[in-house]
Amino acid sequence: MSEADKARQALYATVTRQIESNTPPAAGKAMKRLREKGYSDEQAMGLIAAALSHEMTTVMKSGTTYNAARYAKSLDRLPKLPWSKA
């Protein structure tokens, strides 16, 4: 398994735990909303994982801590990706 595949698997496992534990609630809400819009489970998980990955990258690049409000905002904007300006 490649490093990229391992990272993707870890992100998906984290997203699954977030949805199952309802922590943060925005993750489960995003999954439900995306499914209602016609996205498959796999597509919705990919979008949520992208939002999580973006939050993690922001934390690492900026040297700041995890920002729950920023992550929730990214989840609320899906399917628009966090790095999209429009």
Please provide a brief summary of the model.
The chain is mostly helical and 86 residues long.
How would you describe what is shown here?
By secondary structure, the chain is mostly helical. It has one domain. It contains 4 helices and no strands. The protein has helices at residues 3-21, 25-36, 41-62, 68-77. Helix 1 (3-21) packs across helix 3 (41-62) and helix 2 (25-36) runs parallel beside helix 4. The longest helix has 22 residues, at 41-62. The protein is globular. The protein starts with a helix and ends in a 9-residue tail after the last helix.
Features:
4 helices; 86 residues; mainly alpha; globular
Order of helices and strands: HHHH
This entry's quaternary arrangement is single chain
Structural class: mainly alpha
Beta-strand proportion:
under 5%
Number of helices: 4
The residue ranges in which pLDDT falls below 50 over 5 or more consecutive positions are none
Mean pLDDT: 95
> Helical content, roughly?
over 70%
Topology, number of strands: 0
Major sheet size, sense and barrel closure:
none
| Cα end-to-end separation | 36 Å
Total domain count: 1
Shape: globular
How are the SSEs ordered, and which strands pair?
Layout: H1 3-21, H2 25-36, H3 41-62, H4 68-77
